[in-house]
Amino acid sequence: MYLENLVLDAADPQRLGRFWEAVVGGERLTDEPEGFETRLAITDDAALDLCFQRVAAASPEQAGPVRFHLDLQGGAHQAEVVERLVALGARHVDIGQHAGSGVPWVVLADPEGNAFCVMEERAAYAASGPVAALPLASASPDRDAELWSWLSGWGEVAGPAPRCLRHPSGRGPLLELLPEAAPKGPAKNRLHLDIRLEVGDDPDLVAAGIAERGGREVHQPEWGELPWRLYQDPSGNDFCVLPARDG
């Protein structure tokens, strides 16, 4: 199994998807009424797909720090990157970063209010590409890193968070496990990760492995029959496990 998708809930998947495609320089995969997908290349044979799925009502905007978001590469050109993103439709927001306190990153929101950061120059992001990092709030970074490394196949690397994971190639964004400011509430994350099974993976054994590492399966009968299975990690962060592709 491997980490395949970053999934964002969207009221308007085309509008939001085209914004993020322009932001990361993605390769368009799907443009349909209910969903939009664009591909972020990591290496010649590895990628993360950014998927935008239509939802009837997205979780409300969060006034404080969000549990899961994207950090974009800014570096020495941070100001120019911010200017470009605002021209594409982003806006400045304050989600508790204490404006005026001298934090080196810039917080923006996309056209549907999802907060993200444009980072200053950091050596840990030199091989990241346009998306520097994927910060994920965790009640226990040590515990959660074990689950996420097992699910994704990403290995531990040094970085700015207590635990950081990266694709085995050594390229692409860091998955950063950060101490949470508060426990996760009942609302679904607007952004979540999808794990894809490979041919020969047993979904029930994967479910057992998730449970052994502190995660749990979530059942939503009101959503009807789904081809994937829903889970939460030990800190309550949502993710899906998708079936293996045919062939």
Task: Give a quick rundown of the structure.
Helix content is 18%, strand content 34%. With 247 residues, it is of the alpha+beta class.
List the helices and strands and how they pair.
Blueprint: E1 2-10, H1 13-24, E2 27-32, E3 35-43, E4 46-54, E5 71-72, H2 78-88, E6 91-92, E7 106-109, E8 115-118, E9 131-138, H3 141-152, E10 155-157, E11 163-166, E12 174-179, E13 191-196, H4 203-212, E14 216-218, E15 229-232, E16 238-242
Residue share in helix: 10-25%
Uncertain parts: none
Strand proportion, as a percent range, falls in 25-35%
Q: What is the number of beta strands?
A: 16
Shape: globular
Calculate the terminal CA-CA distance, rounded to whole Å: 15 Å
Mean pLDDT: 92
Largest sheet: 8 strands, mixed
Note down, in words, how this protein is organized.
- The protein is α+β, with helices and mostly antiparallel strands.
- It is 18% helix and 34% strand.
- It has four helices and 16 strands.
- The chain has helices at residues 13-24, 78-88, 141-152, 203-212; strands spanning 2-10, 27-32, 35-43, 46-54, 71-72, 91-92, 106-109, 115-118, 131-138, 155-157, 163-166, 174-179, 191-196, 216-218, 229-232, 238-242.
- It has an eight-stranded mixed sheet with strand order 2-3-4-1-13-16-15-14.
- The radius of gyration is 17 Å and the shape is globular.
- 38% of the residues are buried.
